[in-house]
Amino acid sequence: MTKYFKNFHKYRYLLYEIVRKNIKLQYRNSVLGVFWTFLQPLLTTLVLVAVFGGIFGSSRNYTTCYPIYLLCGRLIFEFFTQATKRAMRSITNSASVIKKVYVPKYIYPLSNILANFVTFIISLLVLVCFIVYFYFFTNQQPVVSSYIFLAPIPILILLILAIGVGMILATFSVFFKDIEYIYEVFCMLLFYMTPIFFHAGQLNASPIVGYAIKINPLYSITEMFRCCVLYGRMFTMNHLYYALGFSIAIFIVGFFIFYKKQDKFILHI
Amino acid sequence: MNKQNSMAKQPAIVVDNVSVLFNMNKEKVDNIKEYLIKLVTNKLHYNEFWALKNVSFTVEKGERLGVLGFNGAGKSTLLKTIAGVIKPTEGKVEAHGIIAPMLELGAGFDLNYSGRENIFLYGATMGYSRKFIQSKYDEIVEFSELGEFIESPVKNYSSGMRARLGFAIATAVQPQILILDEVLSVGDAKFRMKSEAKIRSMFDKGITVLFVSHNTNQVLNICDKAIILDHGKIIAQGDAKEVCALYDEMIAKK
């Protein structure tokens, strides 16, 4: 075990370099540059508010402030899908290096997820702007309390989950190219299985759908996050236990599968 | 423990009974649909293929070993196994010291990145810290002769420029083991002479070299020992002169 930590310590700078490269190259040659990190969630949230605001946002029983409710869900979902998709392609994209030089291969999926995580953290500034705006200038006020300082907990659980899923996808996509298309469809399903623009209690859906939403760890994570930043209260402990347990399990499974299969990568990329 | 430390001469590379097995499917199966169909219809046959079989040799520190062999003899697989890219199916490889694999110069470059940024990226890929690369930075830029182009993206470089930069980084780090896979033909004549001189100066510092080539003249020029690989097995090893003579005979027979 210490051998692995030593190796990680040696290559930690590579991790840093790739994270930096991914962030830098993402916004190079675009006029607005890093400003897109703010603009993109802002614009897509506006679109979603315009489309769904009338249907799902009008009932006051469920949502305190619909635009913030939506933005929370969208930010978390978008980070999760973008990061895992990038991680999925990371091994095949770095084939030229992996074939020639020894590098710990997990550095590639990990660095892609961390790069997305950094831009996700930056994009949270949009959320701060939303909260400030709605708190001071509208009557749809979000409840701001000291629970906002608990927001890093769901975010960290989300990161663990994304790393685990990313590892699994990266491994499988080396052997089966069509994982990419399947995962694309799965993400669309996940979008509707996560209460992003609706509230879980709002659906008069069949018990199966209700159940499917509840076993989705992203549901627990978004609910926890909303409790912290929007409702201003403590999250339900059940959400915490479920999301944390699920994410750590996936994390361990992800690294295990990756570790078992990594020596065969070179024959397939 | 003490015993090991007291040993004055530790070999640089020990290749101990190494075999590498490749499972080659007759047709490439890279999607789930085909995989399942073949699994159900029981057509998932693999061609087992030993790229290396029971290869053993030792390279002492400061020795320069030439690896000769026809195409497909397993030369690249051997070098990749020593570099740690391929894990041997059986046996083990031990390498003591920093390895600079010059298998393909500039393989770790990102084309959208500038030369300067790539120096740091490539250095990190080889496992060096930012501080260390920073201290070698000026030397690398000077040796690569890129001048102000160091700030332009690598995608705009000519292949010679890329190879020069790759060579400059790979040699600037003062490795203890150098793996050369026919890279002594990069750039124009002037740079070729410069790079040969650089490698020779590294010889004087007692660097261990593995050199792959088809050209016996080049091997004689650089190496003091040599091996011949054929179909994954070592068929001759020993003094460079004798082995090269044998290899020339083999070519003549073909």
Overview of the structural elements:
The complex is a heterodimer of chains A (269) and B (254). With 269 residues, chain A is mostly helical. Chain A contains eleven helices and no strands. In chain A, helix 2 crosses helix 3 and helix 5 runs antiparallel to helix 6. By secondary structure, chain B is of the alpha/beta class. Chain B has a domain of 137 residues: Rossmann fold. In chain B, the strands form two sheets. In chain B, strands 5-6-7-3-8-9 form a six-stranded mixed sheet, with helices on both faces. Chain B has a three-stranded antiparallel sheet with strand order 2-1-4. The longest helix of chain B has 16 residues. The radius of gyration of chain B is 21 Å and the shape is globular. Chain B starts with a helix and ends with a helix. The N terminus of chain B is likely disordered. The chains are: A mainly alpha (269), B alpha/beta (254). The interface between A and B is medium-sized, with 29 and 32 residues.
